[in-house]
């Protein structure tokens, strides 16, 4: 009886889950079909020539009004045959080519759920998904265990049927009786094992969760906005249209990818579901042991790290260390507590040595900073199950003490995970220094000549220790990202301030001259217009600048009223304590309508999630393109449900224009070696140019253009004392 009841519970759960999944598919069907139709209606009929290698003559077809592939399919063979000059053979070829395009679109088109325009069909989809998301990972684990249980119990119950009554056993032959008795024993053992593991309660709870719908449509939509990444992850899984396998696996060589695929990943200590590419990333870390996870910003590197920690904890490992900038220490502790069952202890602050002693004794995940790590004793072999180094590009300089400390710890840990969305900035050599901390053999194989042969060769060489995926390849649900360069003519007042900065040879003053006289600032006027427009549309805006005094000017200007009553938060600068930074971002996100967050790009462009913002303003171009990539990715990341508009404020004819032009090579280098997988060439200039050299060249060229001389170029003025940049966690003092 116990076995039959357990089997019925497992079957019932499978049915409940199947119905929940089918409800999602039923709601998704019309939305997906409509998206396919819109895509086909946007494809010009001339594309059919590409598929047929130019064999079709489509002039008359277009003249008849059938200008898109969608219209051709809608018209069908009969209507097409009525077009003058179109014969049966042409009709057959057109229909065949159009159907091939339709099949391709059907497989690749992504469904986007517009949170600002809830329609009945999207509401039905969100409410159907809500059931599965709300049931959570526990329900998914219960369904998987129910399937295994059913597979084992079903045959045993069938074999044991003669044992259900004395008469049946008497009538059964000896062989059937023996099999029945053996099956009864097997059932008893299986049920005892399941009851000891608490499986009957898990199955019952999962069924209850799957049958409990949202209280209202509003509740489902609200939850979707808070946890859209989980909704889209389930949608991709159920629809059977996940991102391309090669892209999701970072275009790794086949032998490495296969080893990673076979790596088991235990989820018993984890409280969050993983996207397919995230599960692959966690398996990569486990299979390769010491690696760099270089996923583009916004793809959930933290979640992948937590998945690895949870797996190792399930295997019996007890001690782990996460090293990160102070600005994201609070974020790490929050994420580990929310996403796993692991104990977290902060190894930072005045009591850090007492906390370290407690961590040594009781175990858990110790979260600390680069500076604090230097004060702790290096662990013995096998003591730390995993060393996680967040924002690992902070330790790319092998001469810096923080880099040496991290290298020493990595050497004494059997597993190490370096995380960075920007492993390459100006020099391939700096990336090699990170690799050397993990695998000296791979690092030694990367000569300068090899690095310059192209990104495919480079990526293949570092594949044993490096995995990177891009947003565009794996997050097909991300809303659009529209980037606009806002070129402004400097006012007479701006020009005067700029000439004074050029005459002084002060590169940093040149960069912020457009804001020095707020009353007649062309950039500031445009910024106010952008913020006002965003406020009128109920959107939140984050304003980034390298300079604290620029943020001060912007804050005063917005406080005067152009934000249309939207509250202004910040400025979030390097001098704001790490915990306070996260609270500022949380308060900004909590405002129900428009709001503005002012943020110093080096202090806020790393680690903090700002997806509440759908408008981003960059007050000036940055010396390092990666700073801009990071800042934009704070908003345009997994979990964002609205299109993101990025406005970069630029002044014509001066330092901004020269910086944009000179930095194009830097961006191409980053794309070729760290972001893209296509073959690309990098010029020596793009590799060798330094920030100081760039500043010197720009100052000299501007002095020559304007015919001014003064104190001479002061290109080295890139430090905090001169430029007003906050100390922040990413001001690299190891070279100053």
TrEMBL record:
<keyword id="KW-0378">Hydrolase</keyword>
<dbReference type="InterPro" id="IPR038718">
    <property type="entry name" value="SNF2-like_sf"/>
</dbReference>
<dbReference type="InterPro" id="IPR000330">
    <property type="entry name" value="SNF2_N"/>
</dbReference>
<dbReference type="InterPro" id="IPR049730">
    <property type="entry name" value="SNF2/RAD54-like_C"/>
</dbReference>
<dbReference type="GO" id="GO:0004386">
    <property type="term" value="F:helicase activity"/>
</dbReference>
<feature type="domain" description="Helicase C-terminal">
    <location>
        <begin position="526"/>
        <end position="695"/>
    </location>
</feature>
<dbReference type="GO" id="GO:0005524">
    <property type="term" value="F:ATP binding"/>
</dbReference>
<dbReference type="InterPro" id="IPR014001">
    <property type="entry name" value="Helicase_ATP-bd"/>
</dbReference>
<feature type="region of interest" description="Disordered">
    <location>
        <begin position="704"/>
        <end position="736"/>
    </location>
</feature>
<keyword id="KW-0547">Nucleotide-binding</keyword>
<protein>
    <submittedName>
        <fullName>Superfamily II DNA or RNA helicase</fullName>
    </submittedName>
</protein>
<dbReference type="InterPro" id="IPR001650">
    <property type="entry name" value="Helicase_C-like"/>
</dbReference>
<keyword id="KW-0067">ATP-binding</keyword>
<keyword id="KW-0347">Helicase</keyword>
<dbReference type="Pfam" id="PF00271">
    <property type="entry name" value="Helicase_C"/>
</dbReference>
<dbReference type="Pfam" id="PF00176">
    <property type="entry name" value="SNF2-rel_dom"/>
</dbReference>
<dbReference type="GO" id="GO:0016787">
    <property type="term" value="F:hydrolase activity"/>
</dbReference>
<feature type="domain" description="Helicase ATP-binding">
    <location>
        <begin position="282"/>
        <end position="441"/>
    </location>
</feature>
<dbReference type="InterPro" id="IPR027417">
    <property type="entry name" value="P-loop_NTPase"/>
</dbReference>
């Amino acid at each position: 009886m116990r076995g039959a009841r357990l089997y019925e519970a497992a079957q019932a759960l499978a049915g409940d889950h199947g119905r929940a999944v089918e409800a999602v598919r039923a709601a998704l069907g019309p939305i997906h079909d409509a998206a396919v139709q819109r895509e086909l209606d946007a494809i010009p009929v001339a594309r059919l020539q590409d598929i047929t290698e130019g064999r079709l003559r489509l002039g008359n077809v277009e003249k008849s009004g059938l200008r898109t592939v969608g219209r051709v399919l809608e018209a069908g063979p009969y209507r097409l045959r009525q077009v003058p000059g179109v014969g049966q053979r042409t009709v057959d070829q057109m229909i065949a080519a159009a159907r091939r395009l339709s099949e391709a679109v059907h497989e690749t088109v992504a469904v986007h759920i517009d949170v600002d325009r809830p329609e009945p069909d999207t509401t039905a989809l969100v409410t159907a998904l809500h059931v599965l998301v709300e049931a959570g990972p526990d329900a998914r684990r219960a369904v998987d265990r129910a399937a295994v249980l059913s597979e084992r119990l079903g045959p045993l119950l069938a074999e044991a049927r003669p044992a259900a009554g004395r008469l049946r056993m008497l009538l059964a032959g000896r062989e059937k009786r023996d099999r029945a008795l053996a099956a009864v024993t097997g059932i008893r053992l299986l049920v005892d094992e399941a009851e000891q593991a608490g499986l009957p309660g898990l199955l019952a709870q999962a069924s209850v969760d799957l049958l409990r719908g949202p209280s209202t449509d509003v509740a489902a939509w609200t939850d979707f906005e808070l946890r859209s990444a989980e909704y889209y992850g389930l949608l991709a899984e159920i629809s059977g249209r996940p991102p391309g396998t090669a892209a999701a696996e970072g275009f790794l060589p086949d032998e490495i990818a296969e080893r990673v695929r076979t790596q088991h990943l235990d989820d018993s200590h984890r409280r969050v579901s993983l996207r397919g590419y995230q599960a692959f990333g966690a398996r990569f870390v486990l299979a390769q042991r010491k690696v760099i996870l270089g996923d583009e910003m916004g793809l959930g590197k933290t979640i992948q790290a937590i998945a690895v920690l949870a797996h190792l904890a399930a295997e019996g490992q007890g001690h782990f260390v996460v090293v990160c900038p102070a600005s994201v220490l609070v974020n790490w502790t929050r994420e580990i507590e929310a996403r796993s069952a692991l104990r977290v202890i902060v190894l930072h602050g005045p009591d850090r040595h007492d906390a370290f002693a407690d961590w040594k004794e009781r175990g858990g995940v110790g979260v600390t900073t680069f500076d604090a790590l230097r004060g702790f004793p290096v662990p013995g072999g096998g003591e730390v199950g995993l060393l996680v180094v967040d924002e690992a590009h902070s330790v790319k300089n092998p001469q810096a003490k923080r880099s040496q400390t991290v290298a020493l710890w990595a050497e004494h840990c059997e597993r190490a995970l370096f995380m960075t969305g920007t492993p390459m900035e100006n020099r391939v050599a700096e990336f090699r220094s990170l690799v050397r901390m993990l695998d000296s053999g791979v690092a030694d194989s990367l000569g300068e000549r090899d690095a310059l042969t192209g990104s495919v060769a480079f990526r293949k060489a570092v594949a044993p220790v490096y995995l990177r995926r891009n947003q565009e390849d794996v997050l097909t649900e991300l809303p659009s990202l529209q980037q606009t360069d806002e070129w402004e003519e400097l006012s007479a007042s701006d020009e005067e301030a700029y000439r004074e900065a050029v005459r002084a040879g002060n590169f940093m003053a040149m960069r912020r001259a457009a804001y020095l006289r707020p009353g007649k600032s062309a950039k500031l006027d445009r910024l106010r217009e952008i913020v006002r427009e965003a406020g009128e549309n109920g959107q939140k805006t984050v304003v980034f600048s390298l300079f604290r005094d620029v943020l001060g000017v912007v804050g005063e200007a917005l406080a005067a009223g152009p934000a249309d009553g939207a509250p202004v938060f910040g400025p979030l600068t390097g001098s704001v304590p790490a915990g306070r930074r996260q609270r500022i971002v949380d308060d900004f996100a909590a405002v129900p309508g428009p709001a503005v967050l002012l943020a110093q790009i080096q202090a806020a462009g790393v680690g903090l999630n700002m997806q509440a913002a759908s408008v981003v303003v960059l007050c000036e171009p940055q010396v390092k393109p990666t700073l801009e990539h990071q800042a934009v990715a704070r908003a345009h990341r997994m979990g964002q449900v609205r299109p993101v508009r990025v406005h970069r404020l630029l002044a014509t004819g001066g330092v901004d224009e020269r910086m944009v032009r000179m930095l194009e090579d830097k961006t191409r280098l980053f794309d070729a070696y760290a972001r893209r997988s296509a073959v690309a060439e990098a010029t020596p200039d793009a590799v060798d140019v330094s920030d100081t050299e760039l500043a010197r060249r720009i100052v000299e060229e501007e002095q020559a253009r304007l015919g001014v001389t003064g104190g001479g170029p002061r290109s080295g003025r890139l430090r905090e004392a001169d430029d007003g940049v906050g100390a922040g966690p990413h001001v690299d003092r190891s070279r100053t």
